[in-house]
Amino acid sequence: MSLDQEHAETSATGHEPRDNAAAGQMRKRRSGWVVLPVAMFIGLAIMFAFALFSGDPSKLPSALIGRPAPQVDFAPLEGLQRSGQPVPGFTAKELASGEVHLVNFWASWCIPCVQEHPVLIELAKKTGIPIMGVNYKDSTGDARRFIGRYGNPFKAVGVDPQGRGAIEWGVYGMPESFLVSGDGRILYKHVGPITLASMAENIIPRIEKARGKEPAK
Known about the structure:
Distance between the termini: 84 Å
Order of helices and strands: HHEEEHEHEHEEH
Number of helices: 6
CATH topology of the largest domain: Glutaredoxin
């Protein structure tokens, strides 16, 4: 069809030729495919911004709350000892052993982890909760030196050298902590370092509730 014929057909019918109309529909569909991911990204960005600027990073979304902890086992940090005995790693099965646990993702290169560490030690003393540490994308030597310098609040220390375990747990960054019920379900996620205030206001009351006790005062 020549350009003159095409123009004539359009003028006579008031519509584009059939080929042009199909092309227009295809362009609209492609535009939709582009717009949808962008809209989803913007929506997530708004949720993240709300959580960050509201001063409560624990409001960041987590699809794991109320669900069983991921079936990921963490090998022990090589060479780490306590009282001359190797500190073990831990398995997903151990988190469903009837006892409430706190799983803490940390790294020696993480400055907020340094700030959080004495709070974890205090939390272990106050509540006796087993804290299961996951050392994220770290060198073995640096991780051991970190614990040697700042102390060991962990019952077990597993390693996640490639970060695959963190992906399964839905970790956004270091540090992050998860409260896990006695039957192995994730009850609460804390994003960022646990402070003395958040320990008293958020963590300890949830531990006591998970244990079936009145919140600690």
